[in-house]
Design goal:
Strand order of the largest sheet: 8-7-9-10
Helix content: 40-55%
Length: 417
């Protein structure tokens, strides 16, 4: 029960921190380009505690899961051809209600409402709840040239940016995630160093490996037909392919001599996973700043490789077994925070790197998918319709949701098993 509450608390803290980093990157880059940022909130939309500074409202909602930034010009069908004439009409009339606009443009009320949401997002119009009318933020004189009026309304929105700047805003969250992760890795490695796996094992007295005759400084090179190169490979192979009580054949190297040993897997005292009763032999290494940076960038390559495993049917199962959902990450965060601030910082960096790289994948609705839309739109010199973007994004969301459900099921299986 204590672990459950700790996991919930540290899960909220961890993901809130990651959201601040990611969404903060989008916000700061948009503001640097002169774009209006309406809101920056931690949590899902809902009742909140907030304050306004400048043009932006900051706050925390009552559902502290994730977060969001609302940037002008990124909501609704911003390419709808009716936006320009509707804005011109409201500007000339000074005030117009839903029924009047629907009649004037021969559209359904819900279609007009969608248009007004976009114009409100640009701060081009405002809605009066008492009169139930929209009023324009511009003078009637500007409406004499609807095209200029429309450009004026878009001046400080995401839409007014060049394709390159829009891509920069979309990539900024990913960049912050990755840069922060690299900085933490480099600082930790340089300041405290790390323990290097020497490739040898030590045996737990009375454990399966000890009973089978394995000794300290032996090196395991394979479990049956599964080759292993690091100590971490061994539990991964066991958890993915074997059950407690099964017998495996270990390929072992001792003093330059190779031999095989059969070991019957026991139940891990700390979980339900199969257990050999071995630990790894480590040595402390403290690298230079240059070496730390090189090793940190190496983690980027490893993360790309790990994510790539999800797109290969032959490696999907192994990749999934090494990954976690929000449930597993929350549990790891609680345990890391209990161990030390250093362990927690390292975990935050690792998750930040993974989320950053995951987000740059060209799969809508991820940032990388939005960048792909921008690139295609720039090449064809015409933005992709909102209908196509929505359809593709829904399909991508379906795939991501299925993956999240699968990983969550795995996490509960391991935790409850």
């Amino acid at each position: 029960m204590a672990l459950t509450f700790a996991a919930i608390f540290w899960g909220i803290v961890t993901f809130s921190l990651l959201v601040v980093l990611h969404e903060g990157g989008h916000m700061l880059t948009a503001r640097a380009f002169g774009v209006k940022v309406h809101e920056f909130f931690i949590g899902l939309p809902g009742p909140n505690i907030s304050f306004k500074k400048g043009e932006t409202r900051y706050g925390v909602t009552c559902i502290p899961l994730g977060g969001y930034v609302r940037i002008a010009g990124m909501e609704g069908d911003v390419n709808d051809p009716l936006l320009e004439p509707v804005l011109a009409y409201v500007t000339i009339k000074r005030a117009a209600d839903l029924k009047e606009l629907a009649c004037q443009f021969n559209k359904k009320p819900e279609e007009i409402s969608a248009l007004m949401v976009v114009l409100e997002d640009w701060d081009a119009v405002s809605y009066n709840k008492q009169t139930k009318t929209w009023t324009s933020a511009y003078s009637k004189e500007l409406a004499e040239n609807p095209s200029n009026l429309f450009k004026k309304a878009q001046e400080r929105t995401f839409l007014a940016l060049s394709a390159g700047k829009r891509i920069a805003v979309l990539c900024a969250g990913v960049a912050v995630n990755i840069v922060c992760a690299l900085a933490v890795f480099t600082i930790v490695l340089t300041g405290w160093g790390y323990y290097k796996d020497l490739g040898h094992i030590d045996v737990v007295k009375g454990g399966p490996a000890s009973q089978a005759g394995l000794r300290k400084d032996d090196k395991i090179t394979a479990v049956d037909t599964h080759k292993v190169t690091t100590f971490e490979d061994i539990p991964t192979v066991l958890k993915s392919n074997y059950k407690v009580g099964e017998t495996v054949t270990l390929s072992v190297t001792r003093d330059a001599h190779s031999f095989e040993k059969q070991v019957t897997l026991a139940k891990n005292p700390k979980s339900a996973s199969p257990y050999l009763g071995i630990t790894n032999v480590m040595t402390h290494v403290k690298p230079s700043i240059k070496e730390s940076m090189r090793q940190s960038f190496g983690y980027v390559g490893l993360t790309f490789k790990a994510l790539g495993g999800f797109f290969n049917p032959s490696t999907f199962k192994e990749s999934a077994s090494q990954s976690s959902s929000i449930v597993g990450i929350s549990v790891m965060a609680a345990k890391a925070a209990e161990t030390s601030a250093l362990d927690y910082a390292w975990l935050i960096a690792a998750i930040s790197l993974s989320l950053g790289i995951m987000n740059i994948l060209p799969l809508p609705p991820l940032d990388g998918g939005k960048v792909l839309f921008e690139i295609i739109g720039a090449i064809r010199r015409k933005p992709i319709s909102m209908k196509v973007q929505t359809g593709v994004s829904l399909a991508g969301f379906g795939l991501l949701f299925a993956l999240v459900i699968f990983l969550t099921y795995n996490d509960f299986t391991h935790l409850l098993g």
